[in-house]
């Protein structure tokens, strides 16, 4: 028995997420959404919040990335063995898919905080002998295959998840949907409540929408319309049509398509965007709903490198569980801060040199860019005008890239190839490397070991972004387009630098690539390169501002306290 009475005691907040990134040994995440979920859970444990998380086990992970010598991405399964890290609970539940019973069991992993709190994470698994081969494979791949596969996974997550929590003995006072993928949970809640209302007369009043709304909190994560899951009602009918009346579902989730975001919006009394700007953009996308915003954060302890942990322990004891203490960052002597940074940089450069014959050095201004290779993030923007880049930066900067493109995203994969070809063209002038198989370990190495963190998405598509917050925790300066969290964290020349105009001053179809590249080159040439090499004191003061003003605020401890007061216990 892996769940004890003590662990199910009292009523909890159930946090549902299609992906959760706790550590690389549990490869059930693809990017920022999953890392955010993992950081949320870790802060929940540190703050002793009554939280339980639900996701799927993905036996073959997202994927392992290799890159050939021309920059082409090669994908293979990231196979792992859950039994090395967690135990399977004996309880079983089932959901009906295409008329078949699909059985679900749960692996239970405990995220334990040194402060004593712990959060169980329920990993749902259909890879059981009583299921058909096809159904066993439903918990193999994260974001794999087609819509048919995806809707079934969402049935398992939403409907299976609610059933499993009940079966395991959890009492739930709030259901928090981290993105629309989990929105089927609302239908299962309607079902469970229906049994309490058996004498209701007509069909609509059988369903207790108001109580479900009270129970549900929804965080939306993308301002890209295409980023919201939509399924055809034909698919719905063939997969779970019997489960919930389609005419009522159409009222809740859209007449044309089953829109998971709409379903979540219609059945949650509390809806949040992930940064102020994103909240506004979402509000415009969905007029008629009240959309609040709680800006994302990162888990401070997880995203601070060893040399900075040591430094913070010495000068700001207690920082990890009380990041507000970063307000005292100015106490740290300049030379000790610089030494901690140099140590992190050395680790990164040694690592990079051990992977490839690049000969990067410790002294050169090093710029990092690592995240999912989705095209809107414009990974190759800095190479827009090679001649100009060469003129201003030859011998003065080195560049480190990493990131996975979704296996079906040809545009994203092309960006990786482009970076390889630019790297060839700039050989001997600007050293460029691409680190394979981006994961949490390399993320920490890069966000702490570079001098500048580059981010140049198309506005307003970066709902929040979190890697820049990780950089700030390590005194690494952000050089970023004013989008997502950076609109709130940016003070020009103090916490970092902006690229291009404010988001209100530019329409998506303006010539943003040109405008942004121009500003990027200008600032690199006139401000960033000179400051780095000629005004180290100013640079170190900026590092302190990044920590004292950005890490101070953009952490999941602050974020979770806000979810508690604005969503969970309202
Ligand atoms: C933090 C993190 C991300 C998110 O990066 P963004 O720049 O915010 O998109 C993605 N992948 C990994 C492995 C991360 O650690």
UniProtKB/TrEMBL annotation:
Pfam families according to UniProt: Phosphorylase (PF00343)
GO molecular function per UniProt: glycogen phosphorylase activity; pyridoxal phosphate binding
Organism domain of life: Bacteria
Classification via InterPro entries: Agluc_phsphrylas (IPR011834), Glyco_trans_35 (IPR000811), Glycogen/Maltodextrin_Phosph (IPR052182)
Gene Ontology BP, a term: carbohydrate metabolic process
UniProt similarity note: Belongs to the glycogen phosphorylase family.
Matches recorded under PANTHER family: GLYCOGEN PHOSPHORYLASE
Protein name, per record: Glycogen phosphorylase
């Amino acid at each position: 028995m892996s769940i004890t009475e003590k662990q199910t005691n009292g009523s909890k907040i159930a946090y549902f997420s299609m992906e959760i990134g706790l550590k690389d040994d549990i490869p059930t995440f693809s990017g920022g959404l999953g890392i955010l979920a993992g950081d949320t859970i870790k802060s929940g444990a540190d703050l002793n919040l009554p939280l339980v998380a639900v996701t799927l086990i993905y036996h073959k992970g997202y994927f392992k990335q290799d890159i050939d010598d021309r920059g082409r991405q090669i994908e293979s399964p990231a196979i792992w063995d859950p039994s090395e890290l967690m135990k399977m609970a004996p309880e079983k539940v089932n959901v009906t898919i295409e008329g078949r019973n699909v059985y679900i069991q749960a692996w239970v992993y405990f995220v334990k905080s040194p402060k004593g709190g712990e959060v169980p994470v329920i990993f749902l698994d259909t890879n059981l002998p009583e299921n058909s081969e096809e159904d066993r494979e439903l918990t193999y791949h994260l974001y794999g295959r087609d819509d048919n596969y995806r809707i079934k996974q969402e049935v398992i997550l939403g409907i299976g998840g609610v059933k499993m929590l009940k079966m395991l003995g959890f009492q739930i006072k709030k259901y928090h949907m981290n993105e629309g993928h989990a929105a089927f949970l609302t239908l299962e809640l309607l079902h469970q409540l229906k049994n309490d209302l058996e004498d209701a007369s007509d069909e609509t009043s059988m369903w207790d929408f108001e109580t479900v709304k009270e129970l549900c909190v929804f965080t939306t994560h993308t301002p890209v319309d295409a980023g919201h899951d939509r399924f055809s009602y034909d698919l719905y009918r063939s997969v779970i049509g019997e489960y919930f009346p389609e005419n009522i579902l159409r009222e809740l989730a859209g007449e044309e398509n089953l829109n998971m975001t709409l379903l979540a919006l219609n059945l949650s009394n509390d809806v949040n965007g992930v940064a102020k700007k994103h909240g506004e953009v979402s509000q415009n996308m969905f007029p008629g709903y009240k959309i609040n915003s709680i800006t994302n954060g990162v888990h401070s302890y997880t995203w601070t490198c060893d040399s900075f942990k040591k430094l913070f322990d010495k000068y700001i004891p207690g920082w990890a569980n009380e990041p507000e203490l970063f307000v005292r960052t100015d106490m740290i002597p300049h030379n000790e801060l610089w030494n901690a940074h140099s140590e992190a940089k050395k680790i990164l450069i040694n690592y990079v040199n051990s992977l490839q014959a690049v000969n990067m050095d410790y002294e050169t201004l090093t710029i990092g860019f690592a995240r999912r290779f989705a095209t809107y993030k414009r990974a190759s923007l800095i190479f827009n005008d090679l001649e100009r880049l060469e003129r201003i930066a030859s011998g003065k900067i080195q560049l480190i890239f990493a990131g996975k493109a979704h296996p079906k995203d040809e545009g994203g994969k092309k960006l990786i190839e482009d970076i390889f070809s630019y790297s060839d063209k700039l050989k001997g002038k600007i050293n460029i490397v691409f680190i394979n198989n981006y994961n949490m370990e390399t993320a920490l190495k890069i966000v702490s070991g570079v001098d500048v963190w580059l981010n140049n998405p198309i506005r307003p598509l970066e709902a929040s972004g979190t890697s820049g917050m990780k950089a700030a925790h390590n005194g690494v300066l952000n050089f970023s387009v004013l989008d997502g969290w950076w609109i709130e964290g940016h003070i020009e020349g103090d916490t970092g630098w902006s690229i291009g105009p404010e988001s209100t001053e530019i329409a998506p179809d303006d010539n943003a690539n040109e405008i942004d590249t121009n500003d990027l080159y200008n600032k690199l040439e006139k401000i960033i390169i000179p400051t780095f090499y000629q005004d180290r004191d100013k640079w170190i003061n900026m590092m302190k501002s990044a920590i004292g003003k950005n890490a101070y605020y953009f952490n999941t401890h602050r974020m979770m306290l806000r979810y508690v007061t604005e969503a969970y216990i309202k």
